[in-house]
Design brief:
The chain folds into three domains: about 55 residues, Double Stranded RNA Binding Domain (2-Layer Sandwich), CATH 3.30.160; about 70 residues, Arc Repressor Mutant, subunit A, CATH 1.10.10.10; about 160 residues, Endonuclease III, domain 1 (Orthogonal Bundle), CATH 1.10.340.30. It is globular and about 80 Å long. The chain has a four-stranded mixed β-sheet with strand order 3-2-1-4, with no helix packed on it. A hairpin with a 5-residue loop joins β1 and β2. The chain is built from 17 helices and six strands. With about 375 residues, it is of the alpha/beta class. α3 crosses α4. It binds iron/sulfur cluster. This is Methylated-DNA--protein-cysteine methyltransferase.
Length: about 375
């Protein structure tokens, strides 16, 4: 008797198929490969409960290995290759040649490629971790886009695992004494560094409140926040933000009770509030699960070799799909990005002693370039 079940995933609807011997197939309905549900198969949610749970944990970055009873159909050679694939560690990629060596037949790269392609349990048996000899992505049954996203998910999860080990879990990272101070800080930090924001905040001399900003003339407010730069524009933005806050009678609990999407839409309609400012306010001031994307996020993800979408919202949704939907997780992870960008991953990075320097593609490429320069002598040339 064959059973099946399906559930939605970030990659499309996933169908699980199996029998008493275990899970035999995982099919992804993402439009790249046609498949059919046989009339004989019986739908059973119960039988696949554990597999669905583990896959969901994997998609949210919480699980790195699967512990399921598997029963894939294949030749002995294919099964040996699939076993070797299952042993490639999370977040790493091996070449076909590596796998061929592992199965004891170094000349069988091509046969390994074919067995890889026939893997009936993708994701669980991680054939996406096999890449070309030069590190380039090669074919994937469900398309290269899905392969890239799976590898990115694992890279990002490993990145944060290392950053937590180095810097700790930084949930209380945003330096502010009240929700309103976070809101003001989110505007003042636009196009400047936090030291300047601190100077501007100190200029309020303990009088920072929405009522104070509301009654202070724009020119005077602009002088107070001068150290943050772009002070004339920021004064107007702070006034506009307070106007929005007034709709909630300056009551942070009332704001918190409103749903996140409504708040986000409202905030984005406030003059001078873009995606990063809105998400900083939502996440840090009102505990809504919105991941803050900033230039540091782009820099570090990009250097790690993650394919970073250009649009702010696409990168935010990509990041959010990789972690449990939790305001506190997003706060901590954004804090880690900022800490790491300041400690090591600066514009000119300080890669020595960086906690992820063995995973970083940028460092690897830089080393290759430097080696090439040294070999050609150009590193020591003088003008
Ligand atoms: S190795 Fe260098 S470039 Fe890569 S993340 Fe670390 S500091 Fe940044």
């Amino acid at each position: 008797m064959t059973y099946y079940h399906y559930f939605p995933s970030p990659f499309g609807k996933i169908y699980l198929v199996g029998n008493d011997g275990g899970l035999s197939r995982l099919l992804v309905d993402n439009g790249t490969k046609p498949f059919e549900i046989s009339d004989d198969w019986i739908r059973s949610e119960e039988r696949f409960k554990e597999a669905v749970k583990q896959l969901r944990e994997y998609f949210s970055g919480e699980r790195k290995a699967f512990d399921l009873k598997l029963n894939p159909a294949g030749t002995d050679f294919q099964k040996t290759v699939w076993q070797a694939l299952a042993e490639i560690p999370y977040g790493e990629s091996h070449s076909y040649k590596d796998v061929a060596v592992k199965v004891g037949n170094p000349k069988a790269s091509r046969a390994v490629g074919m067995a890889n392609n026939k893997n009936p349990l993708p994701i669980i048996v991680p054939c996406h971790r096999v890449v070309g000899a030069n590190g380039k992505l090669t074919g994937y049954a469900y398309g290269l886009e899905m392969k890239r996203r799976l590898l990115d998910l694992e890279k990002v999860t490993r990145l944060f695992g290392r950053l937590i080990k180095r810097y700790g879990y930084l949930e209380e990272w945003w330096p502010a004494e009240s929700e309103f101070e976070i809101m003001v800080g989110a505007v003042l930090t636009q196009n400047t560094n936090w030291k300047n924001v601190e100077k501007a905040l100190a200029n309020f001399n303990g009088k920072l409140s929405p009522e104070f900003i509301e009654k202070t003339e724009t020119d005077e407010l602009s002088e107070i926040i001068r150290p943050s730069g772009f002070h004339n524009q920021k004064a107007v933005k702070l006034k506009a933000l307070c106007e929005w806050f007034a709709k909630y009678e300056y009551d942070t609990e009332r704001v918190r009770r409103q749903d996140g999407e409504t708040l986000r839409t409202e905030l984005l309609s406030v003059k001078g509030v873009g995606g990063e400012t809105a998400d900083s306010v939502l996440n840090y001031a009102f505990d809504k699960p919105y991941f803050v994307i900033d230039a540091y996020t782009r820099r570090i993800f990009g250097r790690m070799g993650v394919q970073v979408p250009e649009a702010y919202v696409d990168l935010r949704l990509m990041a959010q799909s990789m972690f449990p939907a939790s305001a506190s997780v997003y706060k901590a992870y954004h804090g880690l990005i900022v800490e790491h960008a300041k400690a090591h991953c600066k514009k000119t990075p300080d890669c020595v002693d960086c906690p992820v320097n063995d995973l970083c593609e940028f460092k690897f490429e830089r080393n290759v370039q430097q080696r090439a320069k040294i070999e050609s002598g150009s590193l020591f040339e003088t003008a």
